[in-house]
Write a structure and sequence with these properties.
about 80 residues, alpha+beta, GMP Synthetase, Chain A, domain 3
Length: about 80
């Protein structure tokens, strides 16, 4: 899941080498934290949060396949 989020984020931003993704794994749920530089934050979130919502939807579908729950947090 971590690699999937990193791949999506790097495709969106101007500074792909600055993308940092960390994963906190729980028993049933994984929390994936995405950090980007301040200038790229708007590109990751998108207009009215549509890009972030799409990333969360893709992550949710991928995690359902392995019968786990994943939550994406975009951190400034």
């Amino acid at each position: 899941m971590k690699d999937l989020v990193k791949y999506m984020a790097q495709a969106l931003v101007d500074h792909p080498d600055e993308v940092v993704v960390t994963e906190v794994v729980g028993e049933q749920t994984s929390v994936i934290e995405l950090r980007v530089v301040k200038e790229d934050l708007g590109k990751v979130i998108g207009k009215q949060g549509k890009t972030a919502k799409a990333m969360r939807t893709i992550l949710s579908a991928a995690s359902a396949k392995i019968r786990k729950r994943a939550v994406l947090e975009i951190i400034e």
